Amino acid sequence: MLRPTPGALNSHLLEERPANLPAHLYVSGGRHRSCFSAVLFEPEGPRLLQLQSPQELEPLQRLGYPLWLRVMGLGDPRLVEEMLDTLQVPPMLLPPLLEVPQRSRVDGLGEAVIVVLHRLSFARDPLHLLSAQVGLLLMPNLLVTFEEAPAGESFPELTAWLESQAGAVEHRDLDDILHFLVDELLDALFPMLEQIANRLDDLEEAALRDPKPKLLARAFVHRSNLRTIRNQVWPLRHQIRVLLRQGQQLLGPDALGGFQEMADLVELLFENCELLRHQCDAITQAYAASVGNRMNQVMKTLTILTSIFAPLTFIGGIYGMNFANVPELNWRYGYLYALLLMAIVALIQSYWLWRRGWFQDWTAPR
Description:
By secondary structure, this protein is an alpha+beta fold. It has 9 helices and 7 strands; from the N terminus they run ββαβααββββαααααα. Among the domains are: 8-163, CorA soluble domain-like (Beta Polymerase, domain 2), CATH 3.30.460.20; 292-355, Up-down Bundle (Methane Monooxygenase Hydroxylase, Chain G, domain 1).
């Protein structure tokens, strides 16, 4: 029996997609064509089946064994609805799973658990993120996964592991598979954060050595990507803990323990995103400090030139006055005397500034 709270099954569409669309998503009018497969947990062991029509599900359902239906691609929503109707999935559960892009969510509804996440990855250009929505529905004796943009086999690691198993699968093992799938999607974020951290370290060093505007632009892009990842993790912090407090009957002790670990994992992801966002701020500050130091070096150079040439200009101005009774005007070597005086003044002042350390370049890399 479903016991949804008011508004729990509303379709929480996002104003815009968390990241860019995968390139292979544009196969069937902007959506990947729908493909279906199923893992039937027979007494002899799990068996992978490829499905073409809803009629193929009817004999599988009559067997009464636990079933994992994998929907890959949302380009044929009518066919998807027929498949789910054959499995007696209530239509009220479909909008949060079939409409994209949805906000991340984990909801317990009595005899159903709904999870919506986004599979994030990097494009060829590591500055650009790609996202594909993944929905999971757990019901008694049934697990359904919806992948917006599958790339090859659906969850290949778990599929290969299941095919290698032998023996019966208990009814509650489907909740362990649900936990494994959610954990796999969240674990994929850690390598991405590690790559972003390495790039931020390189940007911070480059900002200190040779600050350029393009470094600041890259830092802003990484900050935007971190905000995207953070926004996908943020709703799960509260929802997973609410699910644990509900005492969901579909989740066994192992699955509940797994979701408790998942709550800690979400907190760790959120903290890492915050730390890396602070590192982006540090890059901006390092860039501003480096640019400020370079500007100070330029102003110091101009000040040195001005202080050296100011007395020379004074000497030149004195002997440039048009008065008749200037004694030095009649000297035979007056011109050489004036040049020698200027040179001596310039050398003395340059030596004095050098002793005071004005000629050191503080912006040069050490």
